[in-house]
Amino acid sequence: SRLGILIVRHLKRLERVILGYLEVSDGPEEEARLGILETLQCTIEHAWPRMPCRLPVLLKALLRLLWDVHTERGPTPEPVRAALLHRATQCLILLDRCSQGHVKVLLEGVHSSCEENRVRECLRKVQEST
């Protein structure tokens, strides 16, 4: 937050860190993943002009996270899973806004072919966001 738009100087390195944290579960409380989703949200809010070019990589990572959280059968409590899904959905909504609706276009096929209710619900929220 303190860097504001100056975060764009560090986007390449920050993107690698964010992707690394999103890929790996860090235990039942998922503190690292929740924290990195908050970091991603803040980064999107401050560096939104540079986000459309990073959209393919971030979209793929967030969709993979949604799927992993839904399918993992570990000791993660339900409220933590819900928080992960909510924050990932918020990041997708922000990415959609800064890419002028491009995320919604890309997600159309995914939403119609997805049979998992929790993932569909997250995708529906992105589709219905304004």
TrEMBL record:
Coiled coil: none annotated. Signal peptide: none annotated. InterPro entries: Tti2. This is TTI2 protein. Belongs to the TTI2 family. GO terms for cellular component: cytosol; nucleus; TTT Hsp90 cochaperone complex.
